[in-house]
Here is the input.
Amino acid sequence: MELIDLVPNSLSFRVITTIDVDDESEIPTGFTGRVRRHADGSVAYVAWYTDGLLHNPGRTHPAYRRFRADGRLKYELFYQQGKLHDPSAKVPAVRGYYADGKVHYEERYTDGQRNDGKDGSAAIRKWRNDGTLRHELRYANGRKVTPSATAANG
Here is the structure.
């Protein structure tokens, strides 16, 4: 089913085409707009496309949000022209959440490749539910960076 929504956009309105699908094969080639997929009576995810590629609809809104069966956010992904990409130095391209809403993991990307953040944070960070850091992994240009032996022994 296709819907047309008028959504406030600053001082004007923007027309949004929305389709509800049961399977990704139902998304038209080159589609621009919002896709909602339902599962077991609730929204499983909402994805935003531009010319058939996942693309953030705004600077602070991710291209893809996956939800738990109870409607709570499970994870969100920021894309630019179909590639994972950090929307800002403070916001990673990927962020996952525990069921209680606390951050579980973050991943940083530049043009679809894992990279440590511009702020120096590791490309992959995971936390325990109590908020303590569980582990982190560093990447440069999509390749895992291994700490040197001198750094490990220093």
Summary: The longest helix spans residues 149-153.
